[in-house]
Amino acid sequence: MFIEDVFAGAVRYGSSVIFATQGEVISERAGVINLGVEGSMLCGALAAFATASATGNAVLGIIAGTAAGALLASLHAFLVLWRGANQLASGLAISFLGLGLTAALGVNFVSKQITGLGAIEIPVLSDIPIIGKGLFAQDALTYLALVLPFILVFVLSRTKWGLILRATGERPEVVRAYGYDPRRVRAVAVTIGGALAGLGGSQLVLAYTLNWVENVTLGRGFVAVALVIFGAWKPVQAALGGLVFGAALSLQLQLQARGVDVSIWLLQMTPYVLTLLVLTVTSRRQSQQIPEGLKAVFGGSPS
Amino acid sequence: MTATTPAAPSAAPLVQLAKKHAGWFGPLVCVVVILSVIPFLGISVPDVLIRSCPLLLTALAVAIPARTGLVNVGGEGQFVLGACGAAVFATAVSESTPSPVAIVVIAIGGIVFGGLWAGLSALLKVVAGVNETISTLLLNYVATLIVAYAVTGPLKDPEAANFPIGSPLPDRARLPMIGDVHIGVIVALLLTFAVAWLLNSTRWGFKARAAGGNPIAALRGGLPVAALIVGALLLGGALAGLAGALEVMGPDGRLRQGLGVGFGFLGFLASWLAMHRPGWIVAAVVLIASISVGGDSLQIDLGLPATSVYVVTATVLLVVLGWRGTRSGEHH
Amino acid sequence: MKITRPARSAAAFSAAAIALSASLAACGSDDASEADAGGAKKATIGVLYVGPHTDFGYNQAAYEGIQELKKSMPDVEVLEAENVPETAEASRVMEKMIKDGATVIIPTSYGHYQPALEVAAKHPEVNFLHQGGPEAVKPNLGTYFGQIYEAQYLTGIAAGLSTKTNKLGYVVAFPIPQTLLNINAFELGAKSVNPAVKTTVVFTANWCDPAKQTEAAKSLLDQGADVLSQHQDCTKTIVETTERAGAMSVGYHADASKLAPKGWLTGSVWNWGPLYTKMVEAALSKDFASSPYAGVYRVGIEDPTIAIAPFGASVSDETKAKVEETEKAMRAGELKAFTGPIKDQSGKVVIPAGESPDAAALESTDYLVEGVVGNIPKS
After folding, report:
1. Number of CB pairs, chain B paired with chain C, less than 8 A apart
2. ipTM for the complex?
């Protein structure tokens, strides 16, 4: 019962973040770090909510949210790749832009009701003890979030596009030799990353909270960036990080309701502390896992 | 220093002085222009100066490591942990402590906690090779959670009936005001000059910049790169932590969740805008602070949430970032 | 002297930013001057809300009270600011309102207290009416609030009679006395008609985070709670989540029944309008310092400021009768929510038999009563 509830809560609470981590993995594996994920998630969330509110159609909301996230991220891609802007600065500024824009434009949507995405329970499978409720009684987008990491692993390791993407992040000169423009590949990667972040924001408001308030994501975008590091730039591990993020809250709620005293704050530190521990212990190997293209962003001094 | 042929006997030293400090002229003009214009827009100059204080320091916290070749994105965390440190040291201040001593003690609390927090990243880098961009970024989250834990637990105000807020600082520990502005503004400005001097006119500054410019050559040249890294990050964290302490002793008066949210990132952006040069940092900070204070009226006058002002801030930054880039598009 | 590229950029964009801010400021002052030209107002007051007025909760209650005040005092201009954070920011908003002519300021959130004190010290000619503050230490600052937990006792009765699982749920932010009193009153009211009932409480450590609220509500529903109440600023998310799960809702601060057509039972609501009007009249007069509103002013259920929301369609007639009968007794002062013997979760008697602590004594509550499941977090 208890573990089942914690697990189900972890998946529910973490699924929007999982989308963002997958998007950021794509972007960073191509060699561009995008701190604007937070902005993309917020823009995606508002666009999705506003569209669903105006049209009554959640699917249109999903499309709008994904597009909004992609649009904002494309600005980052333009600034970084065509104007040579510093990646960290550009991303941060874009997150601020997203926060301000959505705060201003979202004022009228705070009290609106929408029909969001309902839960789709898969019969039989959702009765499996412990994991059934968490894996098989969720909304459609959460199912996508659970499957996406594996799709991404497949795409990255076994398809031509995945190879080009990875090569762009590791050996752009090779990519050029084969006739592809690394800059365009990166731009596409960043935009897809933003689209997925927007999708995450859409899931958050369309399937989970069904409500919009200013800054509804409360930092999930930045968390996703940290979780990509936690997952060593690998899709499935980064998604697991999203589950750890979700579990930290879910565990605290379930424990506390059962009379066990546990600090909500200390539990929420788990993903970050774990990441730092892992990095400290494995750093020689870890630093080889940072995509080559990112090493320039992460400073040039010797470790 | 090049030798100059003496022109008129009295002008030469002045000309040399002006040339030496020419780097401050441009920023000075910008600042004067901004501060003269904003009152006509209903933006209060004292409010802008007060808002500039923490931003100056968090920007310097980015600039010093940057000139050493390091990326410090941890200003947010170093700031709030410094505020936390200030609150901790404030408990040691008793009824009889004279005001200047109390303020200095609390400021030291901020400096120590902020410095150690950045020092943690430095340590991880030097000992375990953990990239400092990553570790400072991650430690931001941890710091925010630590402060949340503190104000709901150990540092919670016993008089506030379980509201998650720190104890108010005694009046004696609040920053004295000069007119409508607290002295933290002066402190921040003086520190800016000090940092400029440190980076440009001292041996340490020279070594740090050398390590930043070409780390491999620096190592080969025998520079103590590890010590320089640690020193730069410690200094940066100390400044950000001091900003947190000043904010607690100045406008806010107590530790709370959400104190100084965004200041670390805005300082990061200001430093980038100014290419990490202390003079231009002042101008960038005054600009950002002016926009920020201008946004306070948005709610009352236009019914927009105050956060909306980030649209203006971000647009200005993005335009400058985009305008200034190298056209070849190589990222750096 | 060479003007470097960054210098040129910075100058250009300072100009752009100033131009942009100028147009924003110009828009703003146009609106303000139009409002003034509309008709000479006798006085100006300023109101601060910590969140949006559409939150179906704390801020909406305050907002609705202010709209009523506007109707009953048409020659008073009311400046309103929403989403004002509980930091030094609030001081700046108050200063701006004073600069715009406000002579009475109403900060409606607890966390606006410290900023209000500082601004009050600088402006002795302006009177402050702070909602929820702990004390009134300045002659020009008074605090007001209400013992809404007494209404929550009544809603507890409705919950106790309507629950099928005997499990109630409560989502709250922090273990402040107001919250603990609400939870306790709710459980006591429910237990008074249904001794087997238990209330599980979860703390989100946040006043309005929709995601945490959703997860908290779901975790309670997962455990079998079929009536949920809350102490949050914005109530919409939890009420809707509960409704979608087919469970019942007890609201708080404001009437959110239209969000839960099937499951709405009732709720505790504020009826601030009449009180606001009385207080502002006193604050605009010369005799504010001697009025009760300049001190620590609290109202109980004898005052119409404290009320319960209309019943939902699913509430049975017997339940309605029981609630209304109890309400009558409470409003007449014959019955109090906290009348001993009352035990805390450990079984210790915290209110001896026959005793009814007054409001001031209750404001230091630091325990949860027997029947409440869940610990008070230490951090």
Report:
1. 153
2. 0.90
